[in-house]
């Protein structure tokens, strides 16, 4: 990995490491080296949870603890982290062993999410909590800004499932319609079928789950649950 690679990633993160070795370690999977990122991930997870909790507390001053907890859980879960990692193109920078490379580890949600948390931990060690918090917020602010407080922190798929169950309709059927782009930068297209209502919608995203969420959101808009 060249210094130019690290410089590009630093620009995306909005942070330049004083100790560049910490960033390299954060990008190193255990399959590649004994000096890997798992301990940094441990730190980054704590930084992430605290930062998101404070951001939600400040952004939604009237929401109760239970709702804030559900929102935080939705934001810090693997799928959300993987989506942000994909936007940062972390798969282009990660150091993986040969086996993980061949099996597509650079696009596996669990590895992407763990690597992102490791980077947060690396920033914390490099410059302290305030710097790490700023990096987290830079990546999560657009997601937080898009939260609908009336949705109680539930994502579109959960809301659609609950709506259908309340109406005594079968659950939706999500099917992958296709993909576009190169393996390291794919766009997934998913169709959401609800035969009982004669509704089929389509969503797309940088992961299958993101495409499913978009398709579910389209259904909710179509049935008038979301304006």
Layout of secondary structure:
Layout: H1 3-13, H2 20-26, H3 38-59, H4 65-76, H5 78-87, H6 98-102, H7 109-127, H8 129-145, H9 156-166, E1 173-180, E2 187-194, E3 199-205, H10 208-222
Antiparallel strand pairs: 1-2, 2-3
Helix pairs in contact: 2-7, 3-4, 3-7, 3-8, 5-7, 7-8, 9-10
Question: Your description of this structure?
Answer:
The chain is mainly α and 227 residues long. It folds into 2 domains: 3-147, Ribonuclease III domain (Ribonuclease iii, N-terminal Endonuclease Domain, Chain A); 156-222, Double Stranded RNA Binding Domain (2-Layer Sandwich), CATH 3.30.160. Helix content is 57%, strand content 10%. The protein contains 10 helices and 3 strands; from the N terminus they run H-H-H-H-H-H-H-H-H-E-E-E-H. Strand 2 (187-194) and strand 3 form a beta hairpin. Helix 2 (20-26) packs antiparallel against helix 7 (109-127), helix 3 packs across helix 7 and helix 7 (109-127) crosses helix 8 (129-145). The protein is globular.
């Amino acid at each position: 990995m060249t210094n130019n690679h690290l410089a590009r990633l630093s620009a995306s993160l909005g942070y330049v490491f004083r100790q560049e070795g910490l960033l390299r370690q954060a990008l190193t999977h255990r399959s590649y080296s004994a000096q890997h990122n798992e301990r940094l991930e441990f730190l980054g997870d704590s930084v992430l949870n605290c930062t998101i909790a404070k951001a939600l507390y400040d952004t939604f001053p009237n929401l109760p603890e239970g709702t804030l907890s559900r929102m935080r859980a939705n934001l810090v879960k693997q799928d959300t982290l993987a989506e942000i990692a994909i936007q940062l193109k972390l798969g282009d920078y990660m150091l993986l062993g040969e086996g993980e490379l061949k099996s597509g580890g650079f696009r596996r949600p669990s590895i992407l999410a763990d690597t992102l948390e490791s980077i947060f931990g690396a920033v914390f060690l490099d410059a302290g909590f305030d710097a790490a918090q700023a990096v987290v917020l830079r990546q999560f602010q657009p997601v937080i800004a898009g939260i609908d407080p009336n949705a109680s922190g539930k994502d579109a798929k959960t809301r659609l499932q609950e709506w259908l169950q309340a109406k005594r309709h079968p659950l939706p059927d999500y099917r992958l319609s296709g993909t576009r782009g190169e393996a390291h930068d794919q766009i997934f297209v998913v169709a959401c079928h609800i035969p009982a209502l004669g509704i089929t919608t389509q969503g797309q995203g940088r992961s299958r789950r993101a495409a499913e969420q978009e398709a579910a959101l389209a259904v909710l808009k179509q049935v008038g649950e979301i304006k």
